[in-house]
Amino acid sequence: MLRLTIQALALLIAAGTAAAQDRGTVDPKPLPPIEKPDDPNVPAKELFGRKPKPAPLAAQAIGYYTAGCLAGGVALPINGKTWQVMRLSRNRNWGHPNLIQFLERFAEKVPSIGWPGLMVGDLAQPRGGPMLTGHWSHQVGLDADIWFSPMPDRELTRQEREEMSATNIVADNWKDVNPKIWSPAHIALLKTAAQDTEVERVLVNPAIKKALCRDVTGDRSWLHKVRPVYGHNYHFHIRIGCPAGQDGCKKQPETPADEGCGADLEAWFKKVLNPTPGPGRPPLKMSALPAACRQVLLAD
Predict the structure, then answer these.
(1) Which of 52, 100, 129, 260 is deepest in the core (most CB within 10 A)?
(2) Domain assignment present for 225
(3) Quick one: how far is CA 254 from the chain centroid?
(4) 50 - beta bridge partners?
(5) What is the pLDDT of residue 86?
(6) How many domains does the chain have?
(7) How far apart (Å, rounded) are the C-alpha atoms in residues 256 and 251?
(8) Model pTM?
């Protein structure tokens, strides 16, 4: 079943010459100002989404992954020897220094497992907080999305980074992976991420978790960190733990010790695995975030 080689998969993305290392940055377009930024009814996402630079404060993850903010954020350079950041216009390549160090460490490891390099999706906004579009989490600088596409052997253009699609590795019926794409390298990639001691969770589509439960041989001790969740068929989501000594960061409950391959996983396949988006949750106001997030928002 695990038939596609990484070389063949890379051809689905792009071909070219050797990648260059560019310690580049993002230059986001400014958004129009908020008419009444002090209005308590203004959604927090409208305030944090308009901050193009990090708060000049000591690095700190504040609050919870779905209700918090980030002080002293650090940008992941848009190009490294073994990674490239995608969707640069979003300006979401920011994180707590622990996350940036993890990603650089992770990216350095992946060529040894047969994965050319990482295509990095969203981390957090410069000051974290709720995002203008998309994620409910990614607010405290400890979350990162990695595409299920190997990095091509050339530097992508800005336009390609905006328009290129990631690889969907789940079958059309949402009940299993696509056997034409799923490969041992995908397993090795997820295993390498989950085995890092800083990683608390790796979030994937239930069909991917099902494939891991079936296909992983040998050491399976890392499977308990891989958790099923809606979506996540084009990318996987890595979440690292709260930094040591930062009491303002709210920890997530420990993952169960078992592999997660039993009844809990089966229950996902009794749900609609590709639900039509509904009206969603109401946007968070500043009052829903820790009080320290106002200082992060206003810091010059």
Answers:
(1) 129
(2) yes
(3) 19
(4) none
(5) 98
(6) 1
(7) 15
(8) 0.89
CA distance 224 to 255: 7
Question: Which of 94, 81, 82, 71 is CA-nearest to residue 25?
Answer: 94
Give domain status of residue 288, yes or no. Answer: no
Nearest to 214 by CA among 170, 264, 261, 273: 261
Cβ neighbourhood burial of 63 (10 Å; 0-12, 13-18, 19+): buried
Can you name the residues that pair with 240 across neighbouring β-strands? 199
Cα angle value 93/96/101 (rounded, 5°) = 85
What is the DSSP track for 185-246? HHHHHHHHHHHSTTEEEEEE-HHHHHHHHHH--S--TTGGGEEE-SS-SSEEEEEEPPPTT-
What CATH number does the domain containing 84 carry?
3.30.1380.10
Query: Please, how many CA atoms are within 13 Å of residue 23, restricted to the half-sphere of its CB?
Result: 1
For residue 198, being part of any structural domain is answered with yes
Spatial separation of the C-alpha atoms in residues 249 and 65, rounded to whole Å: 9
CA-wise closest residue to 84 among 117, 44, 51, 111: 117
> Counting every residue, how long is the chain?
300
pLDDT in tens, 124-142: 999 999 999 888 899 999 9
Whether 28 is in a domain gets the answer no
What region does 10 belong to: left with phi over 0, alpha with psi -120 to 50, or beta? alpha
Mean pLDDT check: name the lowest of 7-11, 129-133, 143-147, 287-291: 7-11
What average pLDDT does this structure show over 283-299? 96
CA 187 → CA 37, 133, 219, distances in Å?
A: 46, 30, 12
pLDDT band at 25 (very low <50, low <70, confident <90, very high): low
Is the model's pLDDT at 259 over the cut of 70?
Answer: yes
Q: Distance between CA atoms of 209 and 199, rounded to whole angstroms? A: 17
* Percentage of the chain modeled with pLDDT above 90: 80
Query: Cα dihedral sign for 111, 113, 119, 122?
Result: negative
